[in-house]
Amino acid sequence: xxxxxxxxxxxxxxxxxxxxxxxxxxxxxxxxxxxxxxxxxxxxxxxxxxxxxxxxxxxxxxxxxxxxxxxxxxxxxxxxxxxxxxxxxxxxxxxxxxxxxxxxxxxxxxxxxxxxxxxxxxxxxxx
Length: 127
Fold this sequence. Notes:
Elements: H1 2-40, H2 48-54, H3 58-79, H4 82-96, H5 100-113
Helix pairs in contact: 3-4
């Protein structure tokens, strides 16, 4: 009984390994065929989308916008200006009072720009 179970498990493992290797070979063949067609001009170069994203500055703009409050806060601390610190404190108090749907939406937009799936934010505040 044990021998037949071990033989069955060994056959299943061998079959799975064989199929994985066949899949790797098929993917390599498909990649080669696609590259050959692009080289002959039969299909359009697929790297243009990547090139377009590399010249896109929206990520840097969002990062700059998210960094601005930190820079303003640092200015208030280092300047030793009580009026500036009072205004910064008032800004963060108002910022904290924003509705959660707005802050969740802002986080979701920023996350999607950077390629992170942020839909968990809307699931009862759980991550």
